[in-house]
Amino acid sequence: MKRTAVILSVILILLTLSIPVSAEEGTVYLDGTGARAGSYLTLPEAAEAVADGGTIVVCGDTATPSSAATTLPAKTLTITSENGAKLIVGRAMLLNGDTTLRNITVVNAASDGLDFIYTQGHDFTVESDVTTLASETTGRFLSLYTGGAANAFCDVTDQKMTVKGGEWRNIYLGNWSGTFLGVLCTVTVDGATIDRQIQVGNMNSGDNFCEKNVIILKNGVINRILPYNTAAPIEVTLAGGVVKNLECDATVTAEEKVLIGTASAEVKLADGVKAVGDESVDEIICTVYEKGDATGSGPDVPVETEAPDTKAPDTKAPDTEAPETKAPDTEAPDTKAPETKAPDTKAPETGTPETKASGIADATGTEPAAGSDGEGGVPVYVWAIIGVALAAAAVCGVIAVIKKKKA
């Protein structure tokens, strides 16, 4: 009996080791109202509890305190919500790891001069499904900093801030004050609205010594782009959206359209881009020309009228007519008309990929090899059941031999 127990224990251990164990998802819940059992009441508590790279789900409206700034730990975090719960920012927030905001409403409830999110040199992403609400008292939206707070020292290597959703008051490439330096700092606006300005340089005293500052507008609205108290190099690329006041040199490489209000600096149009408007760059529209017309030569007519005129006859007409005539001409006379066997041979050919994909015998009558292309063959769980059955049979055989020897 002892031998039998030992053998069964070994088999159970082996079977246990063969069963995959799911890793923790690293998700914690935050509910400032305390209504959800097992959730955390404050954002710092939830951030301390979640794993590095994990997700904080705001499941009930939660406010950060207005008496002191909220500092999050050095972790990569995603902050999201469910059931429309809001994150209410009562005072400045300081991030110490790469952070993503996704599917959440962020409300500014802070006083003037305290309504900031400092990313402190870490990557920061605001997804397109993020909504922001201005303060009911001040009417201001939150501002974002690539750097830190007062008298901060921030050294970046390749920092990226990507803002796809929401409305924000300012974005500062720098600190509130202090020293901001490094190699590369990139801010990309792709659908959001910056209702005051994007400023290269600290908000207050100090300087931006970053070797390269890059601002990219793909879509959305920026009220103003300007340098402030800095000699740091600035590269501005406009690929779509609206800039109402441009006070930095910029290159327009329009993917769709760029609307520039007033420009007090040089605006360079990349190849294939043409400005339509007056020469003072007041309310110009830039858009990409068709291939072969990238020089920008020709009459100054609105692109939105010129582009459809050229596309309609040159590209759409021949492209749509060609496949329509070729499809019936080649398939009807070449396969069906001259050869009667053509449809017979085509039938299995067209059916072959479908049958192979599903793991059924193909036109040759052979099964696809097990595991080929990640499909076909016996499922893994079937092999597992067979293995367990064989192991059990082996155990029974061993037990029977032991019993015979004892008899």
Task: Explain what this protein looks like in three dimensions.
The chain has 407 residues and is α/β, with parallel strands linked by helices. Among the domains are: 26-141; 155-296, no CATH class. Helices cover 25% and strands 34% of the residues. The protein has helices at 2-18, 43-49, 303-336, 341-358, 380-406; strands at 27-31, 55-60, 62-63, 70-71, 77-81, 86-89, 93-94, 99-101, 105-108, 116-118, 124-126, 131-133, 143-145, 152-163, 167-173, 178-200, 206-210, 213-227, 234-238, 241-246, 250-252, 258-263, 267-269, 273-276, 284-288. The chain has a 21-stranded mixed sheet that branches. The protein has a 4-stranded parallel sheet with strand order 3-6-9-12, with no helix packed on it. Strand 24 and strand 25 form a beta hairpin. Residues 12-24 and 290-383 have low confidence and may be disordered.
